[in-house]
Amino acid sequence: SQYKKGKDSLYAQGKRRYDRKQSGYGGQTKPVFHKKAKTTKKIVLRLECQSCKYKHQIALKRCKHFELGGDKKTKGAALVF
């Protein structure tokens, strides 16, 4: 299956510190990053052995559209209406 980032915990140390600092008056207290350079993420597959349930991850190249187990595109196929 394709790897997806889990939901951020509200109780991680950095989040607790950030929320405490942000509370009250004083506006934004830490820098907000705006100079994002990449438009795509690398595709990561999480592979699992069906017999022993061993899991490991493999990183593929970057792409804008990724489909797992879709129909293959055939080269030079005639259009079917």
TrEMBL record:
Membrane spanning stretches: none
Keyword Iron: no
Any one of the GO CC terms: ribonucleoprotein complex
Segments for region (Disordered): 1-31
Keywords: Ribonucleoprotein, Ribosomal protein
InterPro entries attached to this UniProt entry: Ribosomal_eL44, Ribosomal_LSU_eL42, Ribosomal_zn-bd
GO MF assignments: structural constituent of ribosome
Gene3D superfamilies per UniProt: 3.10.450.80
GO BP terms: translation
UniProt-listed PROSITE patterns: RIBOSOMAL_L44E (PS01172)
UniProt superkingdom: Eukaryota
PANTHER family reported for this sequence: 60S RIBOSOMAL PROTEIN L36A/L44 (PTHR10369)
The family this protein is said to belong to: Belongs to the eukaryotic ribosomal protein eL42 family.
Protein known as: 1455_t:CDS:1
Organism expressing this protein natively: Acaulospora morrowiae
